[in-house]
Amino acid sequence: MPTALITGGTTGIGRATAELLHARGYQVAVTGQNPDSLARARSELPGDVLVVRSDGRVLSDTDALMSAVSARFGSLDLLFLNAGIFRPAPVTEVTEESFDEHADLNFKGQYFTLQKALPLMNDGGSIVLTVGIGSRRGSPGATVGAATRGALLAMLPSLALELAPRRIRVNAVSPGATDTPLLDKLGVPGSGRDAMRSRIPFERFGSSQEVAEAVAFLASDAAGYITGQDIAVAGGYGLGA
What we know:
Number of domains: 1
Order of helices and strands: EHEHEHEHEHEEHHEHE
CATH topology: Rossmann fold
Strand order of the largest sheet: 3-2-1-4-5-6-9
Number of strands: 9
Low-confidence stretches: none
Mean pLDDT: 91
Helix content: 40-55%
CATH architecture: 3-Layer(aba) Sandwich
CATH class: Alpha Beta
Distance between the termini: 46 Å
Structural class: alpha/beta
Number of helices: 8
């Protein structure tokens, strides 16, 4: 039975991916920090899904996470590095605290989670990074969020080459505007959402399930000859001149 660890897996895209993979026969572990979302995940996800409170910014948490995953599963076939934050602000208003918070979770936390998970990864396994279309297509207020997520994209080719001898494939998914709890947290008004939709050729937001399907594909044997690639799941956003 294949195994998967999903960081940031208690809500949104991570939660949808956990549900999809479990339905397809995976043993699944998810992480989160928010007590409410952790409680909901424990009560609503299937009982054999391992739900772990873990802060990616705290390396001792990551060590404990890997110990829990090793004890439950023994090894991993998929590592989905999905945890992250996005708190938009104009560059003139970004504080050092906010900058460090983004960098510590979006890049440093994911980097060391990957490093510490590698001893558990089976040869021929798959690593998927959540990056986001904003790292390639500009948006006012997104400088820090885009840069810290984009750091994952910058390391993608080197990581794919480094892990190729073990046949571990490393790819990324870049969601566009997706209907998740994060979109609600950003407090975008109705007029703002209409403006966002008008820039998407499909004229709608994506769903968490659609991104989850892309992750499941990259984890599958059907993607066995794909590595070092970033798949945009964005309804065609950014294609126009």
